[in-house]
Structure formats: structure tokens, C-alpha cells
């Protein structure tokens, strides 16, 4: 596929995602923040459902050797980077998706967050150019490299190649675990709802 | 229904009234069909969609994208945009910074850039059609500060990890990449610490 066609496909995909996220008010930050702070799960449930579908879809196609899985070494930098990102997204009130979506809705704060994400990336590029860590994807081998705190990479397809078990098998297990979390959230929501109803009835009883 | 659409549907209908009885009825039925379809389309921009439905649809599209190009990510496109913007300001001087030479040599036809631009465009269209587009400004200085620090941390975090939250949840995690699990643990721990800080600032 030519580069222009790739860009067009990406733009079309992005536009539909932007529209759906804008209309549904989905926010990845809220999916984690609201579950932690307010014990509400509107966005968390959506995130889990998407991950269930994706786990089955991706591993299903990986089983037959289709698709383009991400391949690069992971290490402690993966954990540390996303830890900083997690703090940042709660403070900024938006993640990478919602900054673009809110910017499209005319939110100056989101545009400001986006601008400083760019600044943060540029600052990090200066630090990287000084210490060359974490290793660039081009120099990664997929094998563990402990002096560089890299653990190599593994995904469902790697497991399939090494163990001879179809990737979809692992995908189904992951989806089942995600579904169990989803059901636990539903149970919790029902319990919250029942408690709320009970409180309201008690309040009504006292007033009477 | 907006006036222009009502006019368009009504106008179609009037043009056919001179035809025979069958045609009139047939067209009337078709016009009602069009009317309903337009109504349904407009309804989409009036109601808030269930996020479970929206994310399920996005997941299915993401599987197609995975087959054609690769799973949905945002951080890579943002990094390339950073490089392109920096090149605008610094010109060839940028190439003296090894990161932009070895890891992300700036190139305008990198497909991931266009996912982000598409999200901006799609959200703009959605907001305008549902009359939700308006300029919003953070009011307090503390909000500006939190957004600035938050944005910086997001940028640094994406580059340190080589992944963003989208590739964590909608790419690596679902591909069962080891990095996905590390990243998910990191982002949950970060969101928890972030929430504590956020609570403190709200209460203070």
C-alpha cells in the first residue's frame, strides 16, 4: 500500500474514532480515574468490552499469521513511562485520545495539554540523545538484555511459535479474565444501586 | 431537523406530485423513508451514545486497521508531529540531535500522524453537528498549572515507554505483549497516584 493510501486509511479510521468518542463522551482517563476516585464505571466497562473484542480479534488473526503485531523490546522503561503518563493524564484531565477530541470540541485547555505533550516529547528527545536509553526500536533484538533493563518481547504469536499452542487460545483466556472483571463491576453497580434505593426509601420513611 | 434538510426532503417530494397516482404514493413512501433516515441520522447527533457501543465499534475497526497497517496508536504520530514542528523552527539543526536522526527521522507521510488529525476532525464534525462546539477555557491558574504539568508528564512518559495509553490498551495489551502488561500496571499505578494528587488539590 502506498504511503498516501496508508495516510488516507489512517485518517478515515481516526475520523470515525473521533466522532464516536465525541458522541459517547468516552475518556480513557475517566475509565481509570473514576473507577479509582468515585467508584463509577461508565467508561471502565467500555474499555473492558473493547479489550475483550480486540483480544479475540487480534489473537485470532495472529493464529493464522495475519496482521501487524507491535514488535519491540519492553523493559522497566515501559512501566516507568506509563506511570508518569498515568499521573500526567489525571492532572491534565485528558489522555492522548481525549486531548484530540476535546481540542476538536473547542477546548483550549486540551490544546494546551497537547502542546505541552509535544514539549515533553521534545525535552525527552534531548535526554535520550545524551544517554541513548531506552534503546531505540531499531537496535532491539527481541531477546532479553538485562544490562539495558530490557526484557525482550513476547506476544501471543511469539507464544504460539515457541509453545506450539494457537495464539487464539491465549486470547480467549485473556478475554475470559476481562469478562470476569466486567461481571464483577456489574455486580458492584447493582449492589450500589440497591443501596441507593434503600437509602432513598429510608429517607422517604423518615419524612413521612 | 435543520431547515436545509427539511427543505431538501420536502422539495424532492413536491417535484414528483405531477406523476401518476402510483408514483405519488411510491414516492411519498420513499420520502417518508428518507425523512425517517434523516431523522435517525440527526438523532445520532442529539443523544449521547452508550460508550460500550462506541468502543465496541472502534474495536472492530481497530481489528481491520491491525490487518491493514497495525493497531491503533497515538503517541507515535504525536512524536512525528513534534519532530516536524521542531524541524520548522530548527531546520537542519534538528538532525544534530541524535534522537531525531536515529529513532524518529521526521517524515510527513507517516500514517500514524493522520489518525490523530482524523480524531480531531471527527470530533469537530461531531461537535458542530450536535451543536456542542464552543470555546472552553480553564478558569483558574491552578487548572492551567495542572494541565501544563500533566501534558509534560504525558509527553515524557510516552517517549520513555515508547508507547502511549492507546497502544497499551488497544494494541499491546490486546496482542498479549509482555509490554502491555507492564504498561497497564504502570498506568494504573500512575492514575492512582495522580488521583491522590488531584484529590489533594481539589480539597486544598
Report on the structure:
The complex is a heterodimer of chains A (208) and B (204). Chain A has 208 residues and is mostly helical. In chain A, 74% of the residues lie in helices and 0% in strands. Chain A has helices spanning 3-24, 28-37, 42-63, 76-92, 96-104, 108-131, 156-163, 167-207. The radius of gyration of chain A is 22 Å and the shape is globular. By secondary structure, chain B is an all-alpha fold. Chain B is built from nine helices and no strands. Chain B has helices at residues 3-15, 21-44, 51-68, 75-90, 98-102, 111-129, 141-161, 165-175, 178-203. In chain B, helix 1 runs antiparallel to helix 2, helix 4 crosses helix 6 and helix 8 runs antiparallel to helix 9. The longest helix of chain B is centred in the last third of the chain and has 26 residues, at 178-203. The two termini of chain B are 47 Å apart. Classes of the chains: A mainly alpha (208), B mainly alpha (204). At the A-B interface, helix 1, helix 2, helix 3, helix 4 and helix 5 of A face helix 3, helix 4, helix 5, helix 6 and helix 7 of B.
Quick recap:
The complex is a heterodimer of chains A (208) and B (204). Chain A is mainly α and 208 residues long.
What topology emerges from the helices and strands here?
The complex is a heterodimer of chains A (208) and B (204).
Chain A: H1 3-24, H2 28-37, H3 42-63, H4 76-92, H5 96-104, H6 108-131, H7 156-163, H8 167-207
Chain B: H1 3-15, H2 21-44, H3 51-68, H4 75-90, H5 98-102, H6 111-129, H7 141-161, H8 165-175, H9 178-203
